[in-house]
Queue: 3 jobs
Job 1
Amino acid sequence: MGTVINFEERAVASLRARCVAAEEANQDLIAFARGHSGAVASIHQAVLAAVEAEGFDHLIHIVTQDWPQILGLDAVALALCAGDKGMRADASGLQFVDPRVIQKSVARFEGVVLRGVKRGHPMFGPACTLIRAEALIRLDSEAPLPNGLLALGQREAQGFETRHGSELLVFLGRVLTRCMGRWLIP
């Protein structure tokens, strides 16, 4: 006669290991969803602040002064060019820049670039040495409206693993472009 092999212990151990793995994956998914939900809420709050701007100067103030706190960032810079004029704004104020510098910066990508860096994009101005993670958002519009770059930076290095954040940032850039158009076109 043959011997009976007991698979029960192995099967139970395998099921327990799979349950632990599923629970870990579930916790990771919950953590991602909570973080994504927080990002969506922050973007919505930033958009509402921009929509409530009372003029172009106020809009620039909101972007460079209020958005860092709303979005939990260390630096926000806005660079715009129209024709032969270029400007850069950040928390320290407004400066005129060569429009070719801005055009060259935005020609290198479409939409959004999320990346870790050793030094932030030059459009951050003096804060560029502190930036370790940045999101560069291309701002496209039709003439006579300006084109440019919205640069969001933080001191803490960040791993970027998802497209969801870039979709939200594209939305933020499009809203900003439309808000600028509201104040720049008579």
Job 2
Amino acid sequence: MLTAFGKVLRKFRIEHQLLLKDMADRLDVTVAFLSAVEVGRKKIPANLISKLKSVYTLDEERVKELVEAAAISNNEVRFVNLDQMKLPDREGVLAFAKNFENLKSDEKEKIISILKGIS
């Protein structure tokens, strides 16, 4: 699943008929890395937008769009693969994600301690 940043980047590549490999080569990164950034498996490097701007001479509107999408993407968690999980585990992960912010502070601390292996 693409992140907000990945969607903007992919849209740009399609508009300019660029393959992922072409863009990766021009940005001096691997195809795997650029793909991972698009789907949120890797964080967006701090210098990526400036690199994109200089390599592709992006206008300020496109840069702003990338910056805003990066801010959204940096606040998303994308690396939990539910497809391979058994149903009870998947339900647990989803319940945790949906309800965590509604827990009391002491409940959160207890869960975090358990997850970190501290009893």
Job 3
Amino acid sequence: MKAAIYMGKENIEVRELPMPECGDDDVLIQNIYSSICGTDVAVYKHGPNTGHRIDVGGEFGHETISRVIAMGKNVTEFQLGERVYPYPLYAKNDTKRAGTIGGFSEYILVPQAKRNHSLYEVPENISDRLACLIEPFTVGCRAARRSQPKAGEHAIVFGCGTIGLAASVALKFFGMDKVMVCDLSEYRLDIAKQLGFEVCNIASENLSAKAEHYFGVAPSLTGQTMDADVFLDAAGAESILGQFMEHGKIGSRFVSVAVNNSIRKLDLLHLTYAQKSVIGSGGYFPEDVRDVLEIMSSDRWELEKMITHEFSIDEIDRAIQTASDSSNSLNVTIRFQ
């Protein structure tokens, strides 16, 4: 089989590896499409230990849709030809391999496979291309859930990548009334508009003025401000938390899902009197998979618009370089023949 092997900063080799062989309790799956994660881009551009735990000389990739092509003699839960989503935390029976299950290889061996644990059935009305976004959508769905969304509320999402848009969609799915998406990329914001979201280019527009016009106003400790209940950070810029502290209304919540390891100071007295919350969100749980499958099964959003480029596994260097250009791409996928 062909497999992309991570060799360090800006160095990937596509090699021929032996086909994995099923043990008695294992399932062999063939990848159909795989999506490139921001952590794949980070480790490609900056080297090891800057994204997921990806070892030099190893397979990587974790956002994929696959098909069952072989099973061990003890496996009874799956059918040959069935489309499945490999759940990264458990696909390899090793949570340390969540980012390296082999999404950029033609085949993945799933040891001791279990339905709705390591492999989830994918409904037929979800296309192959869209299904490879299940994993990043679960991350966005978890972030939206962590915001404690309530019907009729309003949210601002910072970051118009796959996870930011996934969170925006999930916030609407959970009943929020208005969601605004913010970014610096007009290319990505145009896609958000096509999906039905209000947008703000924070490089050229006044966020406070636009948000007050769109959401209305509400009280804060320092006067009237935008009536936004949730600030969700899927971008990681250090200024976003500051905007929440300055412009968040009484009772508003800040959710961080972006990868940001900077140490920050918080005015706890302000949080106390304003009754604000700062919430972290990372990863996903089975309930997020179930919600994402329902979201993708509906016809409410044309979610395939988020996929802007498609490459073969032999073009993975070019694919990751394309994915790193937020001004001219959104989601980039690898198509397996």
